[in-house]
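Reopening this one. Same input as before:
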Amino acid sequence: MKLVAASDADFAWMIRGDGTSEHGLALPPGGVDEVPHLEMLRGVARRLRSDGIPLWMIVAGDEVVGLCSYKDAPTPDGRVEIGYGIAATRRRRGHATEAVAALLDAARTDPDVRTVLADTAVDNVASQRVLVKNGFRRSGTRTDPVDGELVVWRIDLSAEPSA
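Same output, byte for byte:
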């Protein structure tokens, strides 16, 4: 598994859902996600790029199996929230666990990041397992006006032992 920064051209390709990308990558059956969600993420990617932050394609072999990123630039106190999603036809294969590990590796090398946060739906046990496997601890709940009740997860990188 590797992470490849997604360009605007990559999003156009994922939205079209055809052929091979400029990187020589393929899409899984059914694509990476629904078109409206990809269009929303394309806007997020543009905003993140303006801050020098990539939104990454999660690549297994020569196939884009998902997307992941910071949701925004780190806050002044060093917090950053991550988001990730795996194509429906490529779930339950460890891709999300590997992608979150790669996001954490990137966060550990970023001097502006001390704490990484993530949210999961209360009933999304698979995503909760991904976070636990990567060292996150449940830190509470919150209610989102769109997504409803969410579990909040965190990992404090400043509390990790030095290498």
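So the earlier flakiness isn't reproducible anymore. For the record, The longest helix spans residues 35-50.
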